[in-house]
Structures are given as structure tokens and as C-alpha cells.
Amino acid sequence: MAPSASDHHAEILDQFTRQAVPFATAPGIKNEQALSLVVDLAGAGASDTVLDVACGPGLLACAFARVARHVTGIDLTPAMLEQARKNQREQGLTNLSWQLGDVLPLPFPDTSFTIVSARFALHHLLDPRAVLAEMARVCAPGGRVVVADSAPAPDKAAAFNHMEKLRDPSHVRALPLEELRRLYRAVGLPEPRVTTYGLEGDLESLLGRSFPAPGGADEIRRLFAASLADDALGIATRREGDRIHYAYPVAVLVAARGAA
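RESULT FIELD:
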């Protein structure tokens, strides 16, 4: 049975309150090259106003703020927004504001922003299509709607999502790239431009910032070890010394919103 929205919110709050600091400091998540890739693909410039949806520790919001006029980050988890404010202070940025709140619906008027982004957020959402529709609603005509998320190969998606659900119980489902493309079309956005990259890391560091259910870590280690033989998880597992490394497939999609 699918979880209720209130149960899922509670799961997200539980997970991301605990994950706030380790997630915010994870090398792959805070990688400046990956953040710049999203900002550059969005075509962000000095006149843009940006909304970062489910902004987490504000890493992408801060990256946008280095080039945009103003950036707003919204997130459900107070502990994540604490990390966002810390990142803002450390970078000496003043053109940001943070809002505690849900993303469905987004608490902003129509056409409020010129760029609306969501990074590593859609796979946590019970209804990603509805959230993408909200992102399109608050995006101004000619503005860009940007999604960056895990995008497993279709034939590996079930195994990948099973593993991720074990690792993070707030995970719902990472969508293969074609499903992400279809979401854009379903909410009336044009065909997105797409870039892909691998989110690199090693298993033990990943588990060190994860909070699986009891016994989950051992099962995840087993799945990663088995994937060394046939890449069943679709994450390019490989052994380097005594550690298993991986590269999660990530897709970045950008589409300009047409006239209303």
C-alpha cells in the first residue's frame, strides 16, 4: 500500500533531519563542477530570479546566487535549511531567501521566477508530475524549468530503486530518462535539453551518511558486491583497493516555458 502524504512527510523529515550535515558535506553532492553544470545549462544570468525546490542544504541555490539576481530556496526540513543558511554565510552571499514549506502546492504566485530548479528531489516525491506542473506554473514565460536527478537505465531501474529504498526509506522512485522526458511533455513543457553525468562515490562513505533500517546496510553491501559481476544496479560498480566505488547515473533536463 502506498504511504499517505503525511506518513511520507514524516519519513522525509526523519531522514533528512539526520542526513542534513552528512548530505551537505558529501563530496559528490557539493561537487562544484556538477553544480556549475546545472547553473550553466539553465543559462542563469544577472537578471534571473530563481526558485530551488526541495533545496536541501542550499548547495545549488548558492551556486545560482553567485550569478543570478535573487534565489529562493524552499524545503520541508528545518535542519536542511539550517545547513543552507550556513552555506550562504560561508560563501558571503546576500541575495538568497529561505522558506520552510511543502512543494505541493508551491506557495508562490504564477510566473514568479525565471528559473525553477529541483536537484535530487523528484525521486523523493509521491507525485513528481504534480510537482513539475507546479514548477512550470511558477515559472515565467520564457523561463527555464530544470530537473537534475538520478536516472537509472530502464532495465536496471527496479534493482536500483530497491537498493535506494533500503538505503533511504524516504526514497520513492528514480525515473529513467525517458520517463523524465515524458513528465515534461505531460505538464505542457517542450522537449527538454538533456545532459548526463556520473555521481561518483564509494559504498562505505555512502553508507556512512545514510540511515537505513536495521540490517539494511548489510543487504546493500551484498547488492553492491553482486553488482560487481554484472552491473545489476546500473551504477558502474567497481572495486578499488578494499572499497567498492560507483557512479550513479544523473540526468539534467532543461526546458523553456512557453507563453501561457
